[in-house]
Amino acid sequence: MNHSAEPDDMPGLSVFEKSCAYCGARFRVLASHLPRQDVPEAYACPECGKHYELESAVEPEVRLLKPRSDGKQDRYQETMF
């Protein structure tokens, strides 16, 4: 009997837009997905450098859509607390 592939076994691409929680910049994230090869991958806001994470087969591609809206020019700093 011939069965079609399960959805989890299908390669794909996810594309979504995100607003940075720190500086308000808006950017598009493109992530590739491969069966059983997705791992946590980090990506950063192109304006302030705040890091985010998602499951992807390779490092996500990030494209700036709208510059930061907070009026600042600083970079985001992770805290240890």
Describe the protein in words.
With 81 residues, the chain is mainly β. It has one domain (10-66). The protein is 0% helix and 42% strand. The chain has no helices and five strands. Strand 3 and strand 4 (51-56) form a beta hairpin. The radius of gyration is 16 Å and the shape is flat. The model is unreliable at 1-7 (pLDDT under 50).
Brief description of this entry?
The chain is mainly β and 81 residues long. The protein contains no helices and five strands.
Mean pLDDT: 87
Oligomer: single chain
Q: Order of strands across the widest beta sheet? A: 1-2-5
Beta-strand share of residues: 35-45%
Radius of gyration: 16 Å
Domain module tally: 1
* Tally of strands: 5
Shape: flat
Largest sheet: 3 strands, antiparallel
Specify the structural class: mainly beta
Order of helices and strands: EEEEE
List the defining traits of the structure above.
81 residues, two-stranded antiparallel sheet, single chain, 0% helix, mainly beta, three-stranded antiparallel sheet
Q: What are the SSEs and their pairings?
A:
Elements: E1 12-19, E2 26-33, E3 39-44, E4 51-56, E5 61-66
Antiparallel strand pairs: 1-2, 2-5, 3-4
